[in-house]
Amino acid sequence: MGDSPLALTRFNVISSRIRLARNVRGMSFPAARRREDPASLRALEEGAVRAARGLFDFEFLRMRDLDAVRKRALVERHLISPALARNTSSGAVVLERSEGISVMLNEEDRVREQCVERGFALPSAYERISVYDDRLLRELPAAYDEEMGFLTACPTNLGTGMRASVMLFLPALRLAGQIENEMTHFVRDYGLTVRGVYGEGSKAQGDMYQLSNTRTLGVTESEIIASVESAALEMCAKERDARERLIERDRVAVYDRVARSYGIISNAYRLTSAELMNLISDVKLGVILNILPLKDTKTLDKLLVWCSAANLTAVTGECSAGERDVRRAAIVKSILQKEKL
After folding, report:
1. What angle do CA 150, 45, 38 make, to 5 degrees?
2. Domain locations along the chain
3. How far apart are CA 286 and CA 284, in angstroms?
4. How far apart are CA 87 and CA 104, in angstroms?
5. What burial letters (b/e) apply to 230-247, b meaning 16+ CB within 10 Å?
6. 99-115 per-position pLDDT tens digit
7. Taking the model in full, what pTM does it have?
């Protein structure tokens, strides 16, 4: 009997995200760089805020009011994009305090709504953001065409304006030298795209890859979700098979790699961000193989965010890069001690 979807994806699907692109009828796309009409911008902000009011607890942040560290910290937590952070003239975000939903204003499109949930949860993420989207469309006149659907700044988002994505952790496929071939297969045969941790143009870090749809026109939201779910399940099955083959081929080499990385990460006095990312990948593999005294991978995933440069600076204060590496190592050591069985 095959594994259930929940069992198959438990460790390898880190998070699920639904993103909706919307624009306002009568307003140019932000990239047009025309002079912004203050009244229109105010109406956009007020509509986005009213749609959230009473639905979830939120804060409204304008990019021009945030310092560089706060903006970078939000980018590192995938709550805003680098493009939005750079827009200090009209960029803003409606941010759920629990950080599940974020609504970016005046990024590539006038509105970019997203909901992120932990694990394999595309339907529930879609359900949450759809409620907000329905409210938003009652507040603002959408740029919509009966034949083309929602009109977006980039033609690849026309139609539903929806991107469904899952963040996958695939260490065994990379160690087996199969990751490039599998990525090519999914792009070609599923019509999906595979990107790095921070989306388009970014590289994979810590063996994490973002798998998402490319087609938004001529398909329904449910069809998009089903396609991404099917692809994610297949990729997780391939990762499980690659993991089993690695163990069969050289168990000692895999266990030794995991144990060495765990030894460094739990005892180091200095850790760079890149080093932490690579070491945690090995340690997470050790948790999956049940050979390390850790409960699960959730805290390890959170460590990557907590110890990223800007988020660490936001908590501990400004310091040199070297001092930040020392603080990072101390935090990791302390938290790993608490996570032991």
Report:
1. 100
2. 242-339
3. 5
4. 11
5. ebbbbbbebbbebbeebe
6. 999 999 999 999 999 99
7. 0.90
